[in-house]
Amino acid sequence: MSGWIGVDLDGTLAEYGGWKGKDHIGAPVAAMAFRVRQWLAEDRDVRIFTARVSGPREGNEIEESRTLIQDWTERHFGKRLAVTCTKDFGMIELWDDRVVQIECNTGRRMDGQL
Fold it and tell me: DSSP code of 91?
């Protein structure tokens, strides 16, 4: 399967207990880290999808955040994963603690709630 899988950082891939500054990234969430390791073993394109690299920011803050996140992914997954805050047509899945899945072309929630 082609395309990339987006994985949110805070609260999805890394434990999150509130903002502790741009230099802090929590420990990996075990179940999600397991999935990411499986995808990487299958040579899937996994990207960190996070607002930490969204603008506007001052100076080099976005690149500094990207570097910190890539350092974290290298420590925990042995690979510097791409980091983005932008969806494109290549994204095939998004794993996020805030997402509500909607049925295509209907606006209906997939979890059955109104």
Answer: E
The CA angle 87-90-96, to the nearest 5 degrees, is 45
Closest CA to 33 of 66, 68, 81: 81
Write out the two tokens for 59.
């100076």
Q: Choose among 108, 13, 5: nearest CA to 69.
A: 13
Distance of CA 70 to the CA centre of its chain: 12
| Helix intervals (H) in 22-99 | 30-41, 61-77
Query: What pTM value is reported for the model?
Result: 0.92
Coil, strand, or helix at residue 4?
strand
Domain ranges of the chain: 4-95
Question: pLDDT tens digits for 22-66?
Answer: 899 999 999 999 999 999 999 999 999 999 999 888 889 999 999
CATH architecture of 4-95: 3-Layer(aba) Sandwich (3.40)
Q: What is the mean pLDDT of the chain?
A: 95
